[in-house]
Automatic annotation (TrEMBL):
A Gene Ontology term for the protein's cellular component: cytosol
Protein name from the UniProt record: Trehalose-6-phosphate synthase
Similarity section: Belongs to the glycosyltransferase 20 family.
Domain of life: Bacteria
One biological process term in Gene Ontology: trehalose biosynthetic process
Leader peptide range in chain numbering: none
SUPFAM superfamilies reported for this sequence: UDP-Glycosyltransferase/glycogen phosphorylase
GO molecular function annotation: alpha,alpha-trehalose-phosphate synthase (UDP-forming) activity; trehalose-phosphatase activity
């Protein structure tokens, strides 16, 4: 169960129209459901009038592997729960933008009510011994709600974003309710050791909870809850395999030829202020100022997908990106050739991988990010062993990828220097770094992640839980 279904649902004559949703959670979790089956409970990206029926069907429609069970939200719930509490309060707090957090009791009330609704949907679908697997910060209260009604059901929770230090989390007046909600689970996973440690330190503030930091465990209400570091991986075969297809290689060549510059840089992000896109564009400008010899020789492609566009900060970041693109192209373009290409649309897997293959360097430079799958997808796609990953130390993926070129997005010249280093690096060093990165990303791919989750919960063994991603 996750806030978002892997599809956006639109009513259409003769049945619902389904479109792929974009985001790290969907990319990572859907292959598990495709392999194992189950039910994905979530929201289909639409608000519904009272009386409207939710969609409940088997997907993919052409070759069904699992079911989707839609949870409908009213317009008021969507504002209070999703835009309000989840995205204007928990999201900025968790990403350490404490000053941006909007803390409002009515948003919290909506969040609680919607969490109740998701828990009811989980209970409708949960069979004895079947795992309820809850994902992300939208649904923190669900584990305790489900446990209250069905203590026999195994529950796992995965937190996909950063978990902040207690000083930030405890700003929330309802922090203890959230901790107690999460501790309804049997196991809780995080991407990095820092997030798990922050969580355990924060749990110390919950009356009645005993924390064993060394063992990664919490004793609460007579149960032991295991806290694990399990960074999500990419579906290696899907990216590596796509990158080996001749048509995709040809498309990458065509992209290079069409742009006509010897060098290409690439950014791929949801249009979110945590991704540091305006900061990246400023650094690209600083790089061109510091290295005029690269003018006319490098194109930066920024691919963006609109996200949470009713939250003012998201409207603002989009405006800042568009202004920066215009400014850079005005200042550094020559009328025919422009240094920045900005594309706002979802790409197919093939098109995405072709762009990864075409780019000399990927700029993955968030101000703060739970993990960042784009970093791993870029590496998995570089079957040619070329390409440089420029990575922010504030992405969770940095803990696993030390061979990337690390650059601080808060300091424009540091990031500009990272871009220069990537482009000027000699091919042998590029090859060595990429080979090491590919080994790491392959070893800790999505299959590894799911095996870890499975063994943590002993899912599939006789008498224990079986997967049911309710
Ligand atoms: P987040 O979960 O915050 O969005 P991640 O980097 O972890 O960030 O995951 C983003 C996912 O969305 C990746 O799998 C990436 O390939 C995908 N994605 C981002 N932009 C696009 C796009 N324009 N078209 C298709 N997929 C995209
Ligand atoms: O990875 C963090 C996350 O919030 C996921 O939970 C979500 O699927 C993705 O980013 C995209 O966000 P949204 O569902 O709000 O469009």
């Amino acid at each position: 169960m996750a806030n978002r279904l892997p599809y956006t649902i639109r009513p259409a004559p003769g049945g619902a129209e389904l479109r792929r949703a974009v985001g790290g959670l969907v990319t990572a979790v859907e292959p598990v459901l495709l392999a194992e089956g189950g039910v994905w409970i979530g929201w289909g990206g639409r608000t519904a009038a009272p009386g409207e029926l939710p969609v409940n069907l088997a997907v993919p429609r052409e070759a069904p592997r699992y079911r989707i069970h839609e949870v409908l939200l009213t317009a008021a719930e969507y504002r209070g729960y999703y835009h309000g509490f989840a995205n204007s309060c928990l999201w900025p707090l968790s990403h350490l933008f404490v000053g941006r957090a909007v803390v409002r009791a009515e948003h919290w009330e909506a969040y609680r009510a919607v969490n109740r609704r998701f828990a009811r949907a989980a209970l409708e679908n949960a069979a004895p011994g079947r795992l309820v697997w809850v994902h992300d910060y939208h649904l923190t209260l669900v584990p305790a709600f489900v446990r209250e009604a069905r203590p026999d059901v195994p529950i796992a929770f995965f937190w996909h974003i950063p978990f902040p230090p207690p000083e930030a989390f405890l700003v929330l007046p309802w922090a203890r309710d959230i901790l107690a909600g999460l501790l309804g689970s049997d196991a809780i996973g995080f991407h990095t050791a820092d997030y798990a440690r922050n969580f355990l330190r924060t749990v110390r503030a919950l009356p009645g909870a005993e924390v064993d930091e060394e063992q990664g465990a919490v004793l609460y209400q007579g149960r032991v809850i295991r806290v694990q570091v399990l960074p999500i991986g990419v579906d290696w075969d899907a990216f590596d395999g796509t990158a080996r297809r001749p048509a995709v290689r040809r498309r990458a060549e065509a992209i290079r030829a069409a742009l006509g510059t010897p060098h290409i840089l690439l950014g791929v992000d949801r249009l979110d202020y945590t991704k540091g896109i305006p900061e990246r564009l400023a650094a690209f400008g600083a790089f061109l100022d510091a290295h005029p010899e690269y003018r006319g020789k490098v194109t930066f492609i920024q691919v963006g997908v609109p996200s949470r566009s009713e939250v003012p900060e998201y409207q603002e970041v989009r405006r800042r990106v568009e202004e920066a693109v215009g400014r850079l192209n005005g200042l550094h373009g020559d009328g025919w050739q422009v240094p920045v290409r900005y594309v706002v649309r979802p790409f197919s897997r093939e098109e995405l991988v072709a762009h990864y293959l075409a780019a000399d360097a990927a700029l993955v430079t968030p101000l703060r990010d739970g993990l960042n799958l784009v970093a791993k997808e870029y590496v998995a796609s570089r079957v040619d062993g070329a390409g440089v990953l420029v990575l922010s130390p504030f992405a969770g993926a940095a803990a696993q990828l030390p061979e990337a070129v690390l650059a601080n997005p808060y300091e424009v010249n540091d990031l500009a220097a990272g871009i220069f280093r990537a482009l000027a690096m000699d091919p042998a060093e590029k090859g060595r770094r990429m080979e090491a990165l590919r080994r790491r990303v392959r070893e800790h791919d999505l299959r590894w992640w799911w095996d870890q989750v499975r063994s943590l919960l002993r899912v599939g063994e006789p008498g224990t839980a079986t997967l049911h991603a309710a």
